[in-house]
Each structure stands twice: as structure tokens, then as C-alpha cells.
Amino acid sequence: MSRASTTPLRERSTAVVRERHPYPHFKVVVLDDDVNTFVHVVECLVRFIPAMTPDRAWELAHQIDGQGSAVVWAGPQEQAELYHQQLGGQGLTMAPLEPA
Known about the structure:
By secondary structure, this protein is an alpha+beta fold. It has a single domain, classed as CATH 3.30.1390.10. Helices cover 46% and strands 19% of the residues. It has five helices and four strands, in the order ααβααβαββ. Strands 1, 2, 3 and 4 form a four-stranded antiparallel β-sheet that branches. It is elongated.
């Protein structure tokens, strides 16, 4: 047997260092406009945003109207992109996605 094969494995192996990077999170923001009704905004939020209740959707609709915008969802980028696209596809006025 050669001497290299008798060297303990832990001495021969190199440590693999993996850095963990958090998955980017983004905010989905709906903007106020003069086109969409409260009812339409509420229906869209309940339909497309997971776990959105009608009561919470009404609160957000009033925030959008009163303050000009509201963060309706925040989380992983891919999901944020989907919800942004779905809401915009229903005619809601959307702000560009922004990091959370």
C-alpha cells in the first residue's frame, strides 16, 4: 500500500465553505388611481394575495385611497413578481417592485 492511501481522510479532504445568502424579498405596492373602484381593488387582493381576507383588503383599499399607496404583500422575489403581474393584469396601478 502506498503511504498516501493510509493518510486519514480528514487530513486529505478540503473543507467546502458555502455562504448562505438570503433570498431577496420584495414589496408589492398598489398605487391610488382614478380608475379602479374600492370593490375591484378588494376583489383582486382577495383573489391573488394568499391569505388575504376581505376585511384586510378593505383596510388596504382605504390606505391606498387615503395615503396614495399600500404595501399589499412582501416576500420572496419570485412570488412578488407573480402577484405584481397578476394585480397589474387586472388593471390595478402598480408601483415598481422594490426591495423589502
